Amino acid sequence: MHACAATAALLLAAAIHLLGVRQFGANDYGSIINHAWLAHLGARPYTELLSATPPLFILGGKAAFALGGVRWAALVDAAGLVAALSLAAMYFLFARAGLASTRALALATTLTVAAALPTSFWSFNATAALAASVFLASAFALLEAPERRPVMAAFVASAVALSWCKPNIAGPMLVSTAAVLAATPVRARALALLGAGAVLSIALLVVCRVDPRAALESYAAARGRASLFDTLIMGGQPLTWWEARSTYTMLAPALAGAAAATLVAARARDRREIARIALAGCGAITSAIAFGTNHELKMTDAVPFLAGAGALLFRSGGANRLRDAAQGCVALSLLLVTGFALRVSSTRMRVDMIGTFFERTDALYALEKPELLRGVVTGPRMRFAVRRIDTLLRDAGPGASVFFGPRMDWGYAAWSIAPPRDLPTWWEFFPEGSPATDAMVERFAAHKFRLLVFATEDAGAFPYYPPVLLRYLRREYETWSNGDVLVMVPRGSGRPAGLDGDDG
Q1: Nearest Cα to 106, choosing from 344, 341, 334, 317?
Q2: Which of 65, 343, 386, 437 is the most exposed place for a label (fewest CB within 10 A)?
Q3: Does pLDDT of 504 surpass 50?
């Protein structure tokens, strides 16, 4: 069965590699590339790389560029590696938690497919869902086999990895799991291991030149990004709301199964089984919070809940009719969500959600340049944008001060340009009227950019920017566009010649 687990992990990594280079979603992809590029150039997270993204996302992107070169494929392969390791870890831990090997492998595989395959790129939401599920699996294993060193090591390692993930996932999972384990016979060992994990997490952050306090301050700035209802329904857009509604429906059998298991345990008054139910509840709480706070596919957010439900109900022994029915309900939800994930993955729906260069056309082919995007399979719009930006940069001349805006910030790495280290990667955390925002706009103005490159779809709106920055841009720059490329140049400069020409 170990060989089967290794094969499943390798096949999943290969599938992510193939899917991850099909289509280009500039909104998320640009931010992913820019964070990795800034870190690759030596910018310190949260002090020079101004962002509210978690440490694992930034440092993982840096490691991907260091090991695989400054290429989009390197970030895709990093996602594949994490998914493969997560599958293997969950298989090992579920088996130690009392699941038969076949069930442990089936559960680990379905969970990893649902979390990682629909994105198939370096995503902090998918990574957080996997880290939370591995940690929850290690908690189940620790409850069953507290003396086993591999289980203890996995518990500490997964706690460290999770602590480096998004706080809206890491916090609820770590705190709720600690509270549950503190009420069990393994409380002393569990709390000691969590304490060791906390010390190790902070020490490793310091070694990686990350200030933990600065990270916490950046998280605080990201609060209140969207309303609860808006996030639950993914803005109500047809494509995203369809995915959310479908996923919620598919989870209904698992919810019914978990409720039935709770009823069985309440009748038997089995303390160990009640502890397992409480651990499964940690997964449910974490997923519920993710549903209301993540701008992500809900099948990805659902993975911690499914991990807890599976670990609770797929254990060997203790069979009765109600339990068998509950197992069937959870198995049905897992199969439905996994099948749905495969469908969404094959259509690259997650990339369609984040445009700008997603194209429904048969005229797709692999880019040859720039080197960053070599091998990415995309359409004519992306080819045109690359050619146009390349011409604009050549006309601007070496050393020209260039700024790439949202959706186009992949351009820094594509043309080996150092991004400004004193400006935020995301402006949405700088509201109008704040002294910090005014100071940040003054920093922006001090750069005296000669060329600013944006996506045409943002023309007139620039939803990520505070009004004070938009007023500065409209006062000091004139705007020109061609296709998907919109540029700003200082007033009086006229239309850049490089913006025109043959798109072939």
Answers
A1: 334
A2: 343
A3: no
